[in-house]
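protien #1 (seq + structre)
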Amino acid sequence: MVDLGVREGLTDGAVRAITEGTHGDPFAILGPHRVSGARTAIRTFKPNARAITLISADGRKLADFQHVEGGLWVAFAQGDPGLYRLRVEWPNGSHEAEDPYSFGPLLGEMDVYLLAEGQHRYLADTLGAVVTEVGGVPGVRFAVWAPNARRVSVVGNFNVWDGRRHPMRLRRECGVWELFIPRLPAGEAYKYEIIGVSGELLPDKADPVARQYELAPATASIVTDPKPFEWHDATFMRNRAAFQSKTAPFSVYEVHAGSWQRPDGKPVTWRFLAEHLVAYVKHMGFTHIELLPIMEHPFGGSWGYQPLGLFAPTARYGSPADFARFVDACHEAGIGVILDWVPAHFPTDAHGLAHFDGTPLYEHQDPREGFHQDWNTLIYNFGRTEVIGFLVASALEWLKRFHIDGLRVDAVASMLYRDYSRKPGEWIPNKYGGRENLEAVSFIKHLNGVIAHEVPDALMIAEESTAWPGVTAPLADGGLGFAYKWNMGWMHDSLDYFALEPVHRKYHHNQLTFALMYAYSERFVLPLSHDEVVHGKRSIFGRMPGDEWQRFANIRAYYAFMWTHPGKKLTFMGNEIAQGREWNNDGTIDLWLESRANNLGVQRLTRDLNTLYRAEPALHARDFDPEGFQWIVVDDNEQSTLAYMRWGFEKDAPCLVVGNFTPVPRSGYRVGVPRAGKWREVFNSDAEIYGGSNMGNKGRLTANNTPSHGMNFSLDLTLPPLAVVILRWDGETPAAEPKAAKKSKVQS
């Protein structure tokens, strides 16, 4: 006979709510509770258990549990049982551990305060699944923000995905649900089972701040091994501020990790990339690798641009520790790592952030603000402090935990404008009636301010395709505070120009020169990115006109023009070998083209441009200073020829760049120069080793005293066809240089 006292302190409604898994305050029923006299009732919910024994901390049996109803059990102890364990006999074995409902509130007062204010910068150390000890007991502390939920439970293999077994405690002050599960190890898969605000059972949700996920298409979160990664990049990190200064060379190799190369057709791993990609990038002379988003994402075809796990590297390529080893290998090789990061929107997958607690928690309720029509995704609610805190904490996670050197923020333009890609009537004006998204602007400024304070030597880079003023201007001056902005105008103009047959280029000369009209309005990166080699746009090489020789000559001249133009550099994988076909994320780039002489020539040219670019301060040190650039020949559209000076600082030798963008060789082409003496031809895109005709200036020339182009001196040059030559001043000026020479008026 069951003792009728087992229901002491319980109502029928409370028992029903616990057994049905609808109780919003499980700690009010489960765990230890003082009842009549000096007795303590210890209640636990263990459906299908055969027997349960109450065990003291030192291993003594204190009592047997009695079954109440529907999987609810109770045992009675005299006085305070202290720290106790539950020994549970299951049909297939036994398990012994402390009672999750015997532990008090877990989050500290400061954590609760910061979470409520949306100011907690280390969310993954507080929310999510944290392997820890509570009162000397090892286990996992779970915490998740779901302020409007009626009930939240942790589910996983450890409780047969039964949401009734581990319901959580709500910390109403901040809307966070928490639970400590003793003796649970790292590596366990889990999700949250949530009853929404209207009483509906939602699809199981992955943890928004999980640091690890199952391999797609599985969608559960993983309790991450807390063992800290052992870094070997102290020297790189110590020198990073100088390495990434505005006056330093910055040449980026953009990579989609899954389709660079595959070892014997097998899936890519971080370990493979740490060995092979790092060696290749170092050999090619790039300063940085930029990875398309590697945050966990459900659909591989999105290339990572629809992420749900903003705190976790995707499981597609290995563990978080494997990713950290990849970053460490990059740093040991002297290569920086930039990640594409997507705070603009997120996918609608049921296991993700959408309607997380039964309400539009992370997104806007109104689709005119909250739904992105271009990508069928949801837009973060930048007016909610907790959402801002979530995104800022994600950025810091990558920069601090994984030593990432910069974030390229995707789709900034879509964040800045409420009417982005919307027709009249499909968007809501701001409070002043305008189209600017004031909340997004405030978020971006706050984000960049936090990063500048917390990680001052990290780079924040904007993909921003409009003329929004001050994207890279300091926050103190009213700017958005980014370090760099992608120059989409230069990219479109220059690609369109080089796609023209040379005979037509004289009518489009301004497409090469126009970018200098605004080159110093922002700090620009010149991008030839993944977006330009997909969806029918053709590869960069595929756009080049003419026969095979001319196509290779054109791409060599284009790259030389890019590497000598003011602005930092970025090119997507495959561009450096003049890959003929478009990029396919399910394949790999055609590195086998190295076996073809012309492709190998473009690859060598890219490597040599990187080497020269890094070696010559004139080509990088004053990218954002108008005094670092000077037109010599800007208006020779009839011959499609340009000449300009690149200046470093006073101690640095200047460089003269001359481009002939027709297939007609030109001899005796006079170009004014600001200094007498020797000028060495340090680069020629027509060199034989690159696949060119080997026409040039025989290494070294001496400037004569014939004035030209407003200069006191000049050079008689041979200009190869469809080529760029670079000459560096390489000798002492015999006489004092007239001040007017260097300060000569720019021709227009």
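ok now protien #2
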Amino acid sequence: MAELLALMLLFPLAGAVFQAGWGAKCGRRASNMAAAAAIAGALAMAVVAIWGLGVAPHRIRYGSWFAFDDFSSAFSLLYDRVAGVMTVTVTFVALLIHLYSATYMREDKSFARYFCYLNLFVFFMLVIALADDLIFLFMGWEGVGFCSFALIGFWHEELPNVDAGRKAFIMTRIGDLGYVAALGIVIALFGHASLSDLAARAETLSPGMAAVIGFCFLFAALGKSAQLPLSAWLPDAMAGPTPVSALIHAATMVTAGVYLLMRLDPLLAFAPDVGAAAALIGATTALYGAICALGQRDVKRILAYSTISQVGYMFLAAGCGDVTGALFHLQSHAFFKSLLFMCSGVMIQAFHEEHDIFRMGARLRKKMPGLFLLFTCGAAALAALPPTSGYFSKGRTLADALAHPNDIFLLSFVLGTVAALLTAIYVFRMYFVAFFADPADPAPMSDDPALFRMERPLWPLGVLALVYGFINLPEFFHIKPLLDSFLAGTVAPNPPEVENAEVLVMALDAVIAIGGLLIAWAIYRPARRHMAAPDGCLTAGLGLDGFYRKWLAAPYVRAAAFLWRGVDEDMLNGTVLAATSGISGLSDGIRRLGGGRIAVSLGTVFALAAVILTWLAVGWTQG
């Protein structure tokens, strides 16, 4: 097992090194094949590893990488069934994105740099999925942050792309302060940074200390997973290439925060307030993202706000203590969201880089029926139409909240239910406008045959978006839930109350999804030619970004400008310049006094000597 896990990590890392050193020299085709082969190798290792995995977890240590006093940090891994499912999901989706990227980036000159970052991104995400040492995990945590910064601003010739990368980097670093604080507390308490040992010894912590550590990690997870109040960076992350958006949103960076909460579930069991906060924040973010998606015209920004919303459901499940439910929706979302993002990339290139769904229309459906079918699969799963994967996984998270006795979870259920209705509305609004409308100002279409080649890697995702939900059917179907069974013994079992709540929730979800479809059809049906998206508050993300700019960024910029000009340049530099000017003037005076003549110099020396002797004589007389 140790060799398999090491190879799983080394394949994408070796791919990144190859791309950095020789990718550009070996040519585009060889570079594409090498990048995809590296991820295929990691996927093969992940499948073989999970195939031979028992119930007992594997703790593997490859040696220490730094130490001081009595503390040391090691390259240690914790491989259990949750990690096994996560690694297979990450590598599978990443492989399809790499295959898709080979065609999508066909005209980009920096293909080697692109695939280097992409391989490195997968490596760091696998570190997060496998690491047991919290410092080693933090290396992966920061690694995905760096790769997202590099890939969001990949087309750095345009300043808005660079600004979007900076924004993502800064906002996620704010959240990472929580991780650093929690890490310091854990090391101070236990003398090490083992995730598995923290989980095992969580019961020895006082409720207050468990809550402090839990809230610090929760804050870190909010930043990485773009949850309120640290969600403003994700819509702007659409500045990067579309496959990057698919990778960030589907199976890597934004799911890292949720996965961290899954790993910390034993700790959260002793800090119920942290779980309640995670559930409420997740449900609120789900509603926020759904509302904002209603006001977008850009197909990628619609999907970005959708990601914010759907990750909120994962937080809801994790806050309820349902690791299986959170992982189930994470997988379902990885399949249908990566599918939708890559479909949107084909749509954008089909209309010569046009992002506005109100300039697309029925021509796209008629000219590219395969793309239309694929997008239909993804849209149905995102809207939770029965019996797609999203229908079962989202229903599981809402049943978790409904079955919980705490009023906070009941409120979270209500918020999540309203968000589910709005999700169905904005999904089918996007669907009807982009594929059925007759736009008043249509964008010109491309005839590039490469567009059809880009559809090929998407078919497995289309199938999974439709059928993956059957892998974990509720108990009342009298079919063994495979994911629950596989994770039994690794995570806490779901209480019977959840199984009872699933019956009601599934009926409610079906009504909500179909109702949202009908509402969207009534408002955006093809007969309505002149359609427009609302502007203002919804388009601007309910003003959250503007709030940050006005009340946080602007005062910081003013304070920085004052410290720079008022304190550093005017006060500190001014004082130094004044002192040097005075010394320089005194030196000039003394130099002029001497004038280079020996008689004057000797007279000056004798005069100074006379003054000193007089001062000494007076002092001696007084003494």
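The longest strand covers residues 58-68.
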